[in-house]
Known about the structure:
By secondary structure, the protein is of the alpha/beta class. The protein folds into three domains: 2-80 and 187-246 and 311-361, NAD(P)-binding Rossmann-like Domain (Rossmann fold, 3-Layer(aba) Sandwich), CATH 3.40.50; 84-170, no CATH class; 247-302, no CATH class. It contains twelve helices and 17 strands. Helix 1 (12-23) packs parallel to helix 12 and helix 4 packs across helix 5 (132-157). The longest helix is centred in the middle third of the chain and has 26 residues, at 132-157. The radius of gyration is 22 Å and the shape is globular. The two termini are 22 Å apart.
Amino acid sequence: MKYDFVIVGAGFAGAVCAERLATNGQRVLVIDKRNHIGGNAFDCMDEHGVLIHPYGPHIFHTGSKRIFEYLSRFTDWRFYEHRVQAHIDGNLYPIPINRTTINKLYHLDLNEQETADYLASVREPRERLTSSEDVVLSSVGRDLCNRFFRGYTLKQWGLDLSELSAGVAARIPTRTNDDDRYFTDAFQFMPAQGYTAMFEKILEHPNIEVRLSTDFHVLRSIIEYDHVVYTGPIDAYFDYRFGKLPYRSLSFQHIHLSGVERFQSSGTVNYPNDQEYTRITEFKHLTGQQHAGTSIVKEYPRSEGEPYYPIPRPENEALFQRYNELAEATANVTFVGRLAQYRYYNMDQVVGAALKAVEALL
């Protein structure tokens, strides 16, 4: 059979592209080297019957009504506002830093304006924000930087704040009120039946065929197709011609606690200054599932392994641009997604990038 499009990767980028193309009359083959759909957002029941995210927590949030309404065609939603705490010297503090964080940490009783004044007094302004250290110091000063950010960043990225591009720290706000939500987007929901159920509905179009445990480099020579949508690592597509793009990887320790209804008081607890892991997430907060036990995951950043996070440094961006020039000169191939575009995308941003890519193709 000849396909109009072969889509490499069954995560958000690949699934959304497949659905849009299929709905517009194209014959689409979706392949993935893993044995499941959904990419890193894949979820499933563990052996104890708790719905978990094997590749770490995925919390959906977006400010885009268009993206939310698009995904709403394939799932019902459960309202969920994610909350994160930082474990510091045996105590838990809201993160992002807010008025509660500062009052509890320094044994103060500041109102909102006094909190703003306090932050203004400890900030270390920078003329140019070139690194994440510049961003954090100019926002919250040195003590809060060292307590909440420096150690976490070193574990997460294997780099000091001063070695990371400014955009990484710019993703985390600072608040002078008591808002302890991790995100403030207009749409904060979790798929009511899980991500995998949503992906199944996205991909159930009659014009879509899905093949799992399939390697594109093997398949490409034995099938006929007009165009490829590639969502994997862009450097892998070109056989690492200029060398490998640096990624940060993760390993996960999944633990089930029988007879423990609730392990921690928020969905995620960060450990910036102690422990080898960066954070613990308890899935029942995210899913709202009722169960006599609970399942948690500890995340351990790694320098080697599956590519999860593009490492945002100027030299890495320069290397990506060399690959991107090859991509733009490659006929009949569209590169889209976090790995193909070497971007630190949230899930909704990947959906947006996929919708934009298909509009251009059509």
